[in-house]
Design goal:
The chain is mainly beta. Helix content is 7%, strand content 45%.
Length: 281
Amino acid sequence: MPPHDTPVLRVAGRPVGRYVTRPEIPARLSPRPYLHPVTTLAGTAVTELSPADHTHHLGVGVAVPDVEGSNFWGGRTYVRDQGPTELDNHGAQRHTAFQLRDPDGFVEELRWMASGAELLRERRTVAATELTGVAWALDFTFSLTNTTANALSIGSPATNGRPGAAYGGFFWRARKEQEPPQVFTVDREGEAAVHGTRADWVALAGGTWTLVFAGATEETRQDPWFVRAEEYPGVGSSLASQERLAILPGETVVRRIVTVVADGRLPRIEVAALVRKAVSQ
């Protein structure tokens, strides 16, 4: 893979993330660009790539299990009244070009392809910003435009009959450790209490690191959080939680998530202050 196709994000001169634009992986994993490894400023990795428990989890990116029946998440497809099923319906996100590429971020154009046809065109904007000596922020915005002549809709296993499984959208597969990470919001604690709820931010705290995910627009904050800690550590923002998300021809859906990446296990008061600083920048 050409070096110019794998940008390295830097904060204060330090590498904190590697972005792979053209991964050579099986079609079953729904090939797509991803960030991995992502690290704290001290160098601790806080992402995983194709872990044994879910080989289709690819670091940080955008993954959607159902775009008008095509699987852009990877792995099996949840079929109503049938359950998880192996189908030959996997799509791929194709990197087209960088509109901008700097050490601290980039703007990228992508095409969402399935069965040889383009369903969506995406503009992805990613920026890395220093917050403190031990924390930085990953600002991730994606815009999905329906380029077909017909209405498209985005779904999830939840909208297809599996309660509690509304994954699809921005997703961060975090580092798995011996003990599950702590999960909390400003007023809730634990995976069961946080999963599926709306909150300005969600924190995942591992042994020596903390990740804090914040919806940075009003529309993004309306999407419930998909949270896993016990089975595996991961956080996503759900595009289709209870109903399918319709996108008319030419219409664009935009979401922005800002993630604080910090060394150490941070208390709520410090998390809240970092989120305010990260989202306001």
